[in-house]
Amino acid sequence: MVTWRSSKKSFPVECVKTKSIASSIIASSLIFVSLTGCLAKQCSNQDLKAETLEQSQGQRTAEEWYNEGSKFAESRQYTKAIASYDRATKIKPNYHQAWHVRGKVLHNLERYQEAIASYDQALKIQPNNFWVWYDRGLALESLERHIDALASFNESVRLQPDYGKAWYDRGVVLHYLEQYQEAIASYDQAIESQLIMVDDFGNYTKPIDNYIEAVHLQADYGAVWHGRGMALYHLEKYQEAIASYDKALEIEPDNQEVIENRRLALEKLDR
User: 20 to 30 Å CA-CA from 159: which of 48, 165, 216, 269?
Assistant: First the structure.
């Protein structure tokens, strides 16, 4: 079978014999008044600080809340990030970038349905954003709603035919739907498009000059060749499947999953 794939403080009471009971009561009353006055002053200071903080927060712009949310997201403080993005979208309801990134953070928390709702808000504002359609497809894919995911990936590649990642994940969904020939065509488009990278604003660039991104790109190519090989295997095109597995192994020679699937294809040829 082909495999795939977080002191207390006490106050001493002293009894002085020379003092009358009345004077003791007066002294106690004075102490009480003094203490309550201090407490009232302390509470007043705390209220003032809270009011000042609230006012300063109220004066912050949507962009400032968005930037704060991004900092939280980068440090994986996802719940705080969502709270900041919520502030941003409350101030600026048409802030599509905040809705988009909010969805990505929810996705990281595996709150896929909420992520989709956030992406939908972004798409109401910017319906031709291919990257949001792609991320929406990923969330639907995570919920195993493959037909809906395919529709989102279709929209992503329609809007940006060079976006290789969408072609790849489209191929994965088609594979799950057992539409193997269509999956192979989608994988081929992913390879041809060079799997371009996208920045935080949905801008795409190629070729890649950044070494780290290039490493990720290579890994993505390996996954494409692997997926292509499995689709060919299901079509009983074992020789072509082996050729695709060999391409994947050129990129990731120690990938045991690819090695095992290649072995299975070889077994089919030997029969």
Answer: 216
